[in-house]
Known about the structure:
With 503 residues, the protein is mostly helical. It has 20 helices and no strands. Helix 4 runs antiparallel to helix 5 (98-126).
Amino acid sequence: MSQSPTSNPLALAAVCLAALMFGLEISSVPVILPALESRLQGDFRDLQWIMNAYTIACTVVLMGTGALADRFGRKRVFVLSILAFGLASLLCGLAQDVSLLITGRALQGLAGGAMLITQVAILSQQFRQGRERSRAFAAWGVVFGIGLGFGPIIGGVILALSSWPWVFLVHGPLALLTLGLALGGVEESRQARAGKLDGAGIVWLSLAVFGLAFLLTQGSSLSRSNAVLIALATLVSFAAFVRAERRSPQPMFELEVMRNRRLCGALLGSMGMNFSFWPFMIYLPIYFHSALGYDSLHSGLALLAYTLPTLIFPPLGERLALRFEAGRVIPLGMSCIGLGFLAMYVASQWAVANGLAILPGALLAGIGLGLTNTPVTNTTTGSVPAERAGMASGIDMSARMISLALNIALMGVILVAGVGAYLQRHLGGALGAGQMRRWAEQIAAGQGSLEGLPWLAEGSAQGALVHGFGWVMLYGGLTVCGLALFSVLIFAPWQRPQLGNAT
């Protein structure tokens, strides 16, 4: 495939804008949930679905889209996904009730997942040379970080200056601009010998991923019988997927690829970032606002210590990977994230009223994310032949999104448990278990002033929230440090020389 020097900048701009839109739709929407609750008369479960519909739908299509893009063309699928994302965003912005908004969010997630997979495959295919490839992935990482990191601030500004529909409607003109850049700059590529489409694998894996994501995000609201039924259906779907892939002459997911140490080590990096950094970003504004008493402006400024390094350090991460091997840089970055979380935990427990105390830990975690993100993506897609870049990017992003969905749910459970443990210790047997859990959930949601709350619990709401967040910080730090150690053992950089950049 010939590469035009004039088309590559356009392609990179299209990929980066697509990454920006995808990230914004994850991180900007939580800010407008209170407005949606009052304007659309939604309850707490409706608000959960507004967030989860996007994540679940996105996760479902990841692997299937990678296989479709490999067969029918990455540019074609990318262009269609951009168009679909823009139309779904318009549907969300024009929604007048919660049901229509949830439907629009699900369609956004389907289009966003397809857009995410194809943009990574396009980067891998169109930027082949080492330094050009590193710069492209670094730029992608910075812009993706802007979308995820600045989403809460951007959403809050839009809400302050206009109204909640524009958080979605703004993606209409952005999608048109991205579409034009993609048509002008992205070069078509596909698998050379695509053969027969692995339809059975796509269907069974999509069902298995949907079942898993649904259980992780909605399991607490299901009855035990329904949860068991969905779990069994998920296991059956996954077993059927494995069987289909073993029997298919051209599977979309080659199971033997998991013997690739570079791929597996990079996947641990994908999981590590989403066991800790990204899911915690959803909860961190609650900590700043309710535990530390910051207003929206100061919460946004404090959040910059967490997110700004993710924009600055991806180029350094790529340069370090070129010089010292990705098998060393990825575990190093994850270790920085873990140490940052542990530093935040210590600071939160020793200096409850001083918000500045946790900023060094937040800064260190952001630096670790910046060092880890683009080397992980580059190594994952570069560890397989170029014609299977769609499959590799599907595996990478599936690991990220499944880990993200799991840990959004787990961090919420841990936060409520930590708050409840604090209240139990201070209130003793004054409350029943049901009432204690309801108050713990309200405090964890940032509702520190509760009607009917005893003076002891009301005065302790801040302490309870800090205690619960301490549990979450400790969980994030220990898990990502464990994954970093496991990644070192998988990469085993001391055993043989490796290429720092997968090309």
